[in-house]
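Input:
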Amino acid sequence: MSLLVFGTVAYDGITTPSGSVDRVLGGAATHFALAASFFTDVRIVSVVGEDFSAEDEAVLTARGIDTAGIERAAGKSFFWRGEYEDLNQATTLDTQLNVLATFAPKIPPQYLDSDFLFLANIDPALQLQVRRQMAAARLVCGDTMNYWIGAHRANLQPVLRELDVLLINDGEAKMLAGETNLVLAANRILAMGPRALIIKHGEFGATAFFGEGSFGAAGTNALPFRAPALPLREVVDPTGAGDSFAGGFYGYLASQPQLTAAAFRTAMFYGSVMGSFAVEKFGTERMQTLTRQQIDARFQLFRELTHLEP
Amino acid sequence: MSLLVFGTVAYDGITTPSGSVDRVLGGAATHFALAASFFTDVRIVSVVGEDFSAEDEAVLTARGIDTAGIERAAGKSFFWRGEYEDLNQATTLDTQLNVLATFAPKIPPQYLDSDFLFLANIDPALQLQVRRQMAAARLVCGDTMNYWIGAHRANLQPVLRELDVLLINDGEAKMLAGETNLVLAANRILAMGPRALIIKHGEFGATAFFGEGSFGAAGTNALPFRAPALPLREVVDPTGAGDSFAGGFYGYLASQPQLTAAAFRTAMFYGSVMGSFAVEKFGTERMQTLTRQQIDARFQLFRELTHLEP
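Output:
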């Protein structure tokens, strides 16, 4: 089934304790699409500038990703520079919106039949424009970040009402809910619209919370689900880990014949797996050499990590 | 099989966002023993003062715990007062060592046949004295805390060399190892002596790391194991959560015919289960009404929490 991702395709400058890169292919849609491409057909809607190179586009097309929806605009591509001292939190050193500043996304006609829509982290006003154009999507998942939660909450609210699954991290969940207890925060966020919520805990995995009846959940206090993360010896670059989690999760889900509770759980494990690969190298580097065989071997490791004999 | 725990039996004054208690039964050995008592025979070696009440002793004996090894000394029992603003970290407001200041632990002769020894969090010099008297123990597990890691490291080192399993939390592990990456920290700590290490992550569960060949682990990079924790709607009092985890873990392990990798994993889940009950009420209150049936029902919930269909 086809999965359409809307979000940024960009260039990043990144400094971590492991080193530094000046300008590498990045952006939420890029990381998401690469991770999802191991599971299903992926189409990107985004915008880049005249500086977007054929070599970088080939990173996407080599993984079978349809890039026809990436608009070319006059000017330069979105650029972000950040530094990680603590690997859980980036400090933004520079943000150049460039072509993103005037972007009005238009879904190409041949994309309108996409069953699965992912609204990657970007201005929620743009997320809503895309959602409106994709009225026929069977499932809509999305991401956001602290900046939009804080300064653009009024625009974010109608997006939340449109989502089947929202994926955010611990800090964002607490900020969005105004509540530090994770269970209470999850309940408040579910009341804002999403049918299910995945809260990502970095090296501690991710927890899914379900609204009543969503994805096979029963009762008002449906049991959450937790996917582990593999403790890693080295995190080279956390940039895109959350997008790669989302790509693994949603790519796997889109590849399944039915959206069952079991499929949702397995998808969470694949999300954790893809996040764990993403951080092993800078930018998109690890995804470029990754194989489905390596993915499935790590999936087995993750199962083993929490598996009890029956 | 008999499990001997050495540690504090004390009174606590506790303030949390849920309320406050002036003086309740506490101490690491108390919390450990109560949790372990649901799985195996438990004996305590400790010291209390003349203020230790028959009613509080009955909390232990009602659970079948052997209290003959709790020495009565002139003076008052150990007293701790603390406050939790953030539920992950207590601020100590008052510590009165009282009878603990001059304590020289002596193992009663009838306890010397205990197969399993737990050295709860206390001065490592005392932990070592007890270890020396219990030379025949089949398995020795222990706990410590930031105070001993910082100011008494020379005394802690010989204790670490005696341990089969060390149980500590994230912050303590990073402090002990002088390393913030969890995998590298675990490797450094395993090199200090323990055959296995359980690092507790609070609401995110706990991870076990294994030295080569320990508990069925194969190879120098034996796969760790992660037990989840149930996301809780309310944490009333975190005091004793770690001790209760240790009691559930070790109590279950001591009840098993063989110390296999599978038994170790199941024990970790029971540890998480007992920790999750402990925080539901102040002090020892929840343990006093808990049943094995409730424990096993929650154990099934924890399995379900991370379970994938085969």
